[in-house]
């Protein structure tokens, strides 16, 4: 299972891409709103207990100061993937990118592109696929599908 958390419900349209891609790989997801700044007790509980509920990877989306992914990574034994979200109070998204990207040694957060929740979902599936053959086979098929799309587009352009 993959835990998908975000700082606000306004992040859901972006984070939905992670939910959708994981569901297409038949990976269970749990989704919640966990604000690093407004619900710190909930953040502590989530980070400390997600692995006890069977979560294998956490995807944390956040905008603005974007403390959620790093705070979760500081407490959880699970891999954390951060999704910087360009929010209305953002400095063109750079504050979110840098807040998630620039983690201190010992507290890694895998960081995807601004609003890159789809890639976060794919990365989470790849992490799970490293130890689950069924998921790995779905990732292989997905990547083959990407290759075929490019080859088909190339053939159309050549005509």
Automatic annotation (TrEMBL):
Pfam families: AIRC. Its EC number is 5.4.99.18. The keyword Isomerase applies. InterPro entries: PurE_ClassI, PurE_dom, PurE_prokaryotes. It catalyses: 5-carboxyamino-1-(5-phospho-D-ribosyl)imidazole + H(+) = 5-amino-1-(5-phospho-D-ribosyl)imidazole-4-carboxylate. Pathway: Purine metabolism; IMP biosynthesis via de novo pathway; 5-amino-1-(5-phospho-D-ribosyl)imidazole-4-carboxylate from 5-amino-1-(5-phospho-D-ribosyl)imidazole (N5-CAIR route): step 2/2. The keyword GTP-binding does not apply. SMART domains: AIRC (SM01001). GO terms for biological process: 'de novo' IMP biosynthetic process. Keywords: Isomerase, Purine biosynthesis. It is an enzyme of class 5 (isomerase). It comes from the Bacteria. Belongs to the AIR carboxylase family. Class I subfamily. NCBIfam families: purE. This is N5-carboxyaminoimidazole ribonucleotide mutase. It comes from Tenacibaculum caenipelagi.
């Amino acid at each position: 299972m993959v835990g998908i958390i975000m700082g606000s419900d306004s992040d859901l349209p972006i984070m939905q891409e992670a939910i959708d891609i994981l569901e297409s790989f038949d990976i269970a997801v749990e989704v919640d709103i966990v604000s690093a700044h407004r619900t710190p007790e909930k953040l502590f509980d989530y980070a400390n207990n997600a692995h006890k509920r069977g979560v294998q990877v956490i995807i944390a989306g956040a905008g603005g100061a974007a403390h959620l992914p790093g705070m979760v990574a500081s407490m959880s034994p699970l891999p954390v993937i951060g999704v910087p979200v360009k929010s209305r109070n953002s400095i063109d998204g750079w504050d979110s990118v840098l807040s998630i990207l620039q983690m201190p040694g010992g507290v890694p957060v895998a960081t995807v592109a601004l609003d890159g929740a789809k890639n976060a979902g794919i990365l989470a599936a790849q992490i799970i696929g490293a130890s689950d053959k069924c998921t790995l086979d779905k990732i292989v098929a997905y990547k083959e599908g990407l290759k075929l799309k490019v080859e088909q587009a190339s053939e159309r352009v050549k005509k």
